[in-house]
Amino acid sequence: MEDSAIMLSYSGERLVGLLVCSVVDDGRTFVSRAARILPGLRGQGVHKMQGKAMDEFVRKTFPKVRRKRLTKQDEKFPFGRKLLQQDTLSCCVEKARLRSHQVHQITGRIYSSALEILPCTKEYLCDVIFARRVAQKLFPDNVIVVEYFPIEPLCSNIDYLMQEHDLYFAVEKCSDGVAPRSISFGVLSPRVSNCVHWSATVYSSVPALYEAHLVHQFRQACEVIEGAFIFSCYQDKRFTNCGRRVFKQLLQMTLDEERSKKTMNLYEIDFP
């Protein structure tokens, strides 16, 4: 992919590590996305050497880059400023035990005529949601995190993500001339574990809209995915208890408590 780099590390002829990065935000941001080291070589400085080599490559290849961003589950990372923290809620969905009519019955409980979540086109996302007056309210930190990937609200970034992910956007139904107060992003993502994941991220300051988006994303995942899958949602911690109630009472799903203890933390490092 354009504006992506994969760095491989070898010991002799043996592959011992890799590092993946992307350059987004119109060339201003370098995102460290994935790093792997052979278990037997961890703690021996291989990752540090990889990082230095990638930094130097980015400096030479992408001279506009001014900052490095990375997401980690560690809540304390000594080398960067924390920009954002989101809680995680996750469950395993066994489609064999959840019939289609049950999904509609469960999700129908939360909807009212005054609150409806609808699919959103990329054009609407770029033209309306990313308009300055709307984006400033929905994304006060001027950053969106989709599938652990931080981006600014720019159409070019969405184009970039759509090259590697199946993305789904949803927004609440609004009257003409009324600015949306919420948006959610869904990502259909195969993982190394061979189990399909649906990752949803909701942006809103209104609890009722957060609930409606969570249920809508769950319903969409059930309609798109045929077999068992893992459904995860990322949100501001003020909505975590609300989300737990939605999972347990409305969706009637059992949370994976181990996964749901994790947080997504976004860090930034100056990149002169």
TrEMBL record:
Histidine N-acetyltransferase C-terminal domain ranges (all copies):
119-235
InterPro entries, A to Z = Hisat_C (IPR056483)
Task: Fetch the Pfam families from UniProt.
Answer: Hisat_C
Q: Which domain of life is it from?
A: Eukaryota
What this protein is called in its record is: Histidine N-acetyltransferase C-terminal domain-containing protein
